[in-house]
Amino acid sequence: MRDLAGRTALLTGASSGLGPIIARRLHREGVRFVLSARRESELQKLAAELGGSRVVVADLARRGEAERLAAEAGAVDILIANAGVPVSGRLTDLEVSHIDRGLEVNLRAAIVLTRLLLPGMLERGSGHVVLMASLAGQIPGLRNSIYNATKFGLRGFGHSLRLELRGTGVGASLISPSYVSQAGMWAESGQHSPFEVPPGRVAEAVVRAIQQDRAEVTVAPVMGLIGGRFALIAPSVFLRVGGARAAEIPQEAVDQHRSKR
Fold it and tell me: Among 25, 91, 151, 243, which residue's CB has the most CB atoms within a 10 Å radius?
């Protein structure tokens, strides 16, 4: 989809983190938006800034909200499933409700929205699905089993979906950033990593993925790219050598991020 001018995109997780940055970058290409998240005031501010945008408030942690969002969004050319929540901690310390929330927002909502919006794209013979994955979908992290599960699952879904869509005129892409500085859950944690990337690079990756119909764009420093390949090719060796060194997002940052959605 080389020419994005006049296209309409549904962007989830639009009120904070990477959402506004992705929206502003695509707006420069002429994209119009259906903006969705929990916080209406922030969505309305962004919609006013971009112009020509609609707002649909939805809490994707609640069963049925993804279905309602798809219905209210209507026909869209692009889905950007950007909404995500951190789920950090040892599995035995997590409440089942926290596990459910991570699965609903990070994985189920993206799949359900794709399922419900895809028929219209296929009928028109044009469209694109962008799934916001993570380097955490390639590299397992310490005390990160549920978050890793959602991102590994999203990668499997996205790559398999791409095979299904071959020859239809509809594309599917994964965006897999490492730690994102300045915006989002990692930035809110107050931690720093040599594997950080600025949010603008992630937004550029979204544009490139749509225009070039890329299967996956990993946004990371060179060592992060190498680490991701190593973890996928030789997981036993990776886990023995470096897996335990992965960073964890502190619980207070998880709570802060949850309150902002």
Answer: 151
Q: How many CB atoms lie within 10 A of CB 122?
A: 14
3-state secondary structure of 74: coil
147 catalytic residue (yes or no): yes
Q: Do 80 and 34 contact (CB within 8 A), yes or no? A: no
> Which residues are paired to 51 by β-bridges?
none
Residue 86: which H helix or E strand, with range? none
Dihedral pair phi/psi, residue 61, rounded to 5°:
-75, -15
Q: Which residue has the higher pLDDT, 110 or 2?
A: 110
**Which of 7, 73, 84, 147 is flagged as catalytic?**
147
| Structural domains of the chain, with CATH | 8-260 (3.40.50.720)
The predicted model scores a pTM of: 0.88
